[in-house]
Amino acid sequence: MTDTDTAYGFRPGQPNRDLTGVGRGTPYGEVLRRYWQPVALSADATTTPRRLLVLGEELILFRTRSGTPGLLYPRCAHRGASLFYGGVEDEGIRCCYHGWVFDPSGHCLEQPCEPEGGPHRDRIRQPWYPVQERYGFVWAYLGDPERKPLLPRYDVLEDLGEGELLIADDSGVGGGGPKLLDFNWLQHWENVLDPFHVPILHARFSGFQFVREMALMPEVRFEYTDRGVRSTQLRTLDDGRRLRRVTEVMFPNLRVVASPRLAAGRTDILGWVVPRDDESFHIFTLARATDPDYLRRLRSTHDGKPWAELTDAEHQRMPGDYEAQKSQGTVTLHGDDHLTTTDQGVAMLRRMMAKQISRVADGGDPPGLVFDDRDVVVAITGGNFLDD
Ligand code: FES
Ligand SMILES: [Fe+2]
């Protein structure tokens, strides 16, 4: 480096599109498509068709009057009118243009303009994706139908006790900003393996956004698991006890981050970072709670104000996860990064992603897919643990 290395000669680098891209046929897009993904709240699948953007694909979500959710390609197989304007009936959705009716699996049930109601309508199949409902979400499988896995269960969400409930949320919990996050999903997901930003961004820089203990610089260990990468963060508290905080990511886009307010025990919150396209994503969160307002109460306030009400000057004075991650770029320029020892978790995750891309491209299975009923409950290890 010399004094002549000014910004004048600087040429920005490029994103790593293999890791960030989510569309059909893209390297990691094909990894994401091998798993079930939450795509909407169950409550949002209704008899009013709804547009969704999932992994770069525009789709129409609806629920038949007899109660079955469906997820169809929008352009009607007849001559392309959008099923967004369709009318939902007992067993399917009727295209507004010439009245063809499609069931949730794309079968054409009626062609009212055709003689005898369309004797050849069974040759038509509206492109569709399989969906299932669980835990208050509609889950969709957008991958190769021949390789469709089972929809897993998660041990921390099972066997609710008296007075406990599951909260299903799509408001961007953990994103630190708006409901629809307007930058590449991976900037958020890999942040789960960046425990060193916590004492800086969330304490030293912006004031205590969580609790005081989180301001201590942790000792950190990263390790690969069967399903992703885990970090263990050790902090010695004032009273001498050791706080062991375990966070993990599970392929292809699950974040397991225990409450940053340090509720003790295994985490009761799971979050799926679901890309809409390369430049935006939703966080679908499930929480086990006794208080229906549990997630709302976890949201950070900034000098008593919610994020949406901050002025530009307040965003500058108290930046949080959203300000840090969005400002990396709509899709960050990985080519310009300088990874150091504390980025080990991020580097391990990127390496594991590259490995799974090759595995999927070679016809193999990425980690954690469940094909056998006996393996259907996934064990979660993340949480906050106090050791004496
Ligand atoms: S375009 Fe849908 S029925 Fe004709
Ligand atoms: Fe953070």
Automatic annotation (TrEMBL):
Pfam families documented for this protein: Rieske (PF00355)
Listed CDD domains: RHO_alpha_C_DMO-like, Rieske_RO_Alpha_PhDO_like
Ranges that cross the membrane: none
Signal peptide: none
Region (Disordered): 1-23
Domain Rieske: 36-140
Residue stretches in coiled coil: none
Superkingdom, taxonomy of origin: Bacteria
GO MF, one annotated term: dioxygenase activity
Keyword tags: 2Fe-2S, Dioxygenase, Iron, Iron-sulfur, Metal-binding, Oxidoreductase
PANTHER family to which the protein is assigned, alphabetical: BLR4922 PROTEIN, IRON-SULFUR DOMAIN CONTAINING PROTEIN
Name used for this protein in its record: Phenoxybenzoate dioxygenase
Natural source organism: Actinophytocola xinjiangensis
Taxonomic path: Bacteria, Bacillati, Actinomycetota, Actinomycetes, Pseudonocardiales
